[in-house]
Amino acid sequence: MASAAQSSLFPLAAPITTREIARRVKDGGVAALTEARLRADEARYQEIHCRSALNPVKGMPFGWTLNPYRGCTHGCHYCFARRYHTQFEMDGGDEFASVILVKANLPDVLRRELDRPAWKRELVALGTATDPYQPIEGHYKLTRQALQLLAESRTPVSVVTKGPMALRDRDLFVELGRRARCTVCFSVPTVDDEGWRLLEPGTAPPLQRLRAMRALVEAGVHAGVLMAPIVPGMTSSRAKLEATVKAAADHGARFVGTSVLYLEGGTREHFLRFLQSVYPNLADRYGRLYRGKYASKRYTTELHALTSLLRERYGVIRRERPDPPPNEDASDVEDPHQNVFAFQDA
To answer: Are 240 and 190 in contact (CB under 8 A)?
Structure first.
């Protein structure tokens, strides 16, 4: 396995931490990241040293997360992780997709954490903040190195990705499934071409992701689809939902999970600006549908009921862990635009 130094594209003169990144950006903007290197994809990559690889979480179906990168060149306009970039004094808009932090020493740190006697081999989720298979992974291979270590320690793993590059690591997914437990979730919110191009400008086409998923399933990997998020007014029509569920079933998905767009922090501001630029006619309806960070309870309940019917029709089960229920703090004001059948796609 390559060491952090061997995987480094631009060796650091001295280790830089996320705290130092935030200080520099606060004082001088992203231009202060003088070690960051511009690559052909027009993103700047800044190597950093992390103090921990595994991050504990509460209230989720997993106990730990692991993210080799922060920021993501996929640039999905709805991405909930946009708001996390503010932790580094950067915005959740263009800088989220154009300034990527690379945890160059993550494999060494992870090895130490997994070797601790206190490690209980709880489920670790990859892809909760940014995609572990965004294109730069092809160079650094931090995700692959992490999976190797997790397999050696017999730690169960769940991966969420839009990257067909995940197919590269099918050998490790098979090994993880044999040694512990492994689930690979391909995020495919829609197979609608226009919706994909508008919402996910830096990602591989949805059918390419589905083909990668099918290859993993055929290798014996527990892999499926997350229609996450379903975007009201853009990917939420019955025809688009049905086309996506059918495509997932046709490609052998072991499960199909769903969730509805939620808007919080920097993600909300960025998405609403984006919406105003592409579908200004939806702006007022979003104002009514999203009184808070979640869509109304009535809307999400009806949408989940519809996707459940479609799963039954095409013979795919829901994700092994239940989909999130309609949110208790969601607004439930009676409004015809909140009805899933009335809120038609633009």
So the answer is: yes
- Nearest partner of 343 among 301, 303, 311, judged by Cα: 303
Is 64:123 a contact under the CB 8 Å cutoff? yes
- Per-residue pLDDT of 240-257, as tens digits, reads 999 999 999 999 999 999
- Alpha carbons within 13 A on the beta-carbon side of 40: 2
Q: Residues 142, 106: contact at Cβ < 8 Å?
A: yes
CA dihedral over 148, 154, 155, 161, signed as positive or negative: positive
The phi, psi pair for 199, rounded to 5°, reads -85, -30
Q: How far is residue 119 from each of residues 66, 88, 112, 252, measured CA to CA in Å?
A: 15, 29, 10, 35
| Cα–Cα distances in angstroms (integers) from residue 175 to residues 134, 178, 199, 220, in the given order | 22, 5, 34, 10
Enumerate the domain spans of the chain. Answer: 188-204+221-237+255-346
pTM of whole model > 0.90? no
